[in-house]
Write a structure and sequence with these properties.
Radius of gyration: 22 Å
Oligomer: single chain
Number of strands: 9
Largest sheet: 3 strands, antiparallel
Structural class: alpha+beta
Length: about 230
């Protein structure tokens, strides 16, 4: 028999399987189905499939054994999600573009909304500014509906993840340049989430420090050397 479980990492998923099936670790085989790295916008997880001999399964049908959370259904669930998806769809339509809008993920106090459109590059805009503006409107609308504590993440063409990967690479590359020149470098203007990613990425490097400079929403991060000269 097979069962599926999820955890923040492989060890947690396996421990959950052992506990909920009432078995020892050496009594079942594990197959890794999916791995999602933790990102700024989404929690990481590992999904496994457990293969167990029928005779070892505790009394009770599979439906009576707690298994992993399934991926979010793309179909809006409840009035809040339906109104939020409709709002985003309407805004994009009023901009003059066709799109399909669905739920990308659901987490505690966070919901991801996915936009699919032939005009994704326009909806993203330069450095993601159009997408950020749409996301801001979606969050304002969520607050209007009484969900001020829910953070809405809007994405299209997996832009957020790709942007995050590029920023992490930029952070490390910049740190190397700063260390080599024993100087400082001022990065491009970024939104608050992107700046936090740069700060977090370089936070544990002893001879490198970061600080935000400027006014308004799109401030710049300065990366500077603080080691021995």
């Amino acid at each position: 028999m097979t069962y599926e479980f999820e955890g923040k990492n492989e060890r947690e998923a396996i421990e959950k399987a052992a506990a909920e099936l009432g078995l020892e670790r050496d009594q079942f085989d594990v197959e890794i189905l999916e791995t999602q790295k933790k990102t700024l916008f989404k929690s990481g997880y590992v999904k496994i499939r457990v293969h167990v001999e029928d005779k070892l399964v505790p009394n009770g049908s599979p439906s009576e054994i707690s298994v992993s959370k399934t991926k979010a259904s793309p179909v809006p669930q409840g009035e809040f999600e339906e109104k939020l998806v409709q709002f985003v769809s309407t805004i994009v339509s009023k901009m003059g573009y066709e799109s399909s809008v669905e739920v990308m993920f659901r987490e505690d106090k966070k919901i991801g909304i996915k936009l699919s459109s032939e005009n994704s590059s326009i909806l993203i805009g330069r450095k993601g500014k159009n997408l950020d503006a749409l996301q801001l409107l979606a969050n304002v609308y969520a607050g209007h509906l009484g969900y001020e504590d829910v953070r809405v993440i809007l994405d299209t063409e997996n832009y957020r993840v790709r942007r995050e990967e590029n920023l992490v690479h930029l952070a490390y590359t910049t740190a190397d340049k700063v260390r080599s020149g024993k100087s400082s470098i001022l990065l491009e203007p970024m939104n608050p989430f992107e700046r936090r990613l740069i700060h977090t990425t370089l936070n544990d490097i002893p001879d490198i420090e970061t600080k935000s400079e400027g006014e308004g929403l799109y401030k710049q991060v300065r990366v500077f050397y603080k080691g021995k000269y």
